[in-house]
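user: can you give me the structure for this one chain? tokens are fine.
assistant: on it. calling the predictor now.
[tool input]
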Amino acid sequence: MSISYLWLILPYPQPLYEHPYELHKTYSVTLFEHTDYQLKQLSKRNIMTLKFKYEPTDQVKKDFHIYLLMFYGKDSELYSKVGMEMEDAIKYTEMYLNGDYEDAYEPGYHLWGGGDSMDRSYILDLYLEANDLTPNDVFNLRKLDS
């Protein structure tokens, strides 16, 4: 087993030295020791944890599950062909919240918008993909004549 070293250079929140001619920031250097296996595991997942603009509390998640079923549940008047159940809503919401879905406009933040229609759409995509369905299978889509 070989040992590899990973150097993390992190800026201090404030300079260590107060000097009027200081033109650079002072940095802290931390050395972490990792085995090859641990480095492979680190490279498989995103080291950075995404922050949420709108914290998904338990009550927000419960309301969102109900919102999902209003659109895609088996008893829905809108898109009942999707056939989503409460267990599916919970499973795919957690998959989405724990996934690496970074907001392209706000790096470092998750795409979660507090349970809005975009979140609903992302979870539908996860559900359809996991169940080998396409939008054509569950929606009445047809090509318009030009």
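assistant: here you go. Confidence is low (pLDDT under 50) at residues 1-34, 39-47. The two ends are 64 Å apart (CA to CA).
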